[in-house]
Amino acid sequence: MKKKRFYSIITILALSLCSLFAQKEAIDQANKLYKAGNYEAAAMHYEDIVQKYGVSAELYYNTANAYYKTGEVGRSILNYERALRLAPNYDDAEANLELAQTKIVDNIVQVPPFFVKRWIDNIIKLLSIDQWYVLSVILLIITLSCFLFFVFGNSMIIRKITFYAAFILLAITIVTIIFTSVRHNQLMNHNEAIIMSGTVTIKSSPDKSGTDLFQLHEGTKVSIKSALDQWIEIKVGNGNIGWIEAKDIEKI
After folding, report:
1. pTM higher than 0.90 for the full model?
2. Cβ atoms of residues 128 and 183 within 8 Å
3. In what order do the strands lie in the sheet with 212-217?
4. Is the domain of 50 the same as that of 85?
């Protein structure tokens, strides 16, 4: 029994190492193609790596750079946005995204969110979901420690200090847990998308016979409100709402 477990562990480790070496080799090959100026092939290689070995902010960033070089604005913006979903503080991705967005035909004036929401969103994006989780656990442990000092402390001063400290830390811990949940929802709920077709006409209803409302172009970011068959109800940054065929957008 022990031998079987040992062999199983060795097999798993060997497969993991093989996978890591294969991934590194694939990334090196994609990087070589990019440096050689073969951007289209490099983009395809990066996409293949994501499909085979899983996502990462750096892979999305490299993919976006390759697509930008080929002139595919929609796909470059899509991958920059995906990189920033995983790593909100990825400065290079944010800078390149802003550069790519200058290529968008649509000049949509964004309706700014309420300042409190914007302030909270900026705080949440300071840390990744793992970092918020670790912080929540650490604060919870400290809170429980303060509570134990309050219950079992001999000094009245220490008991008072630890009581108020536990109360304040508990409130902060609850906030960090909420932020962890919000970051998790941001990663799991793909309710934003990028227009991938050159020019699309937004309809008043989920049907080709619907009234033409307005047009959007490749690279424009939209929010997804609902879906019906092969149609998606979207909301643009300026507040306009309409229906678009699912084939014309791709979720971030």
Report:
1. no
2. yes
3. 212-217, 199-203, 241-245, 231-236, 221-228, 192-195, 249-251
4. yes
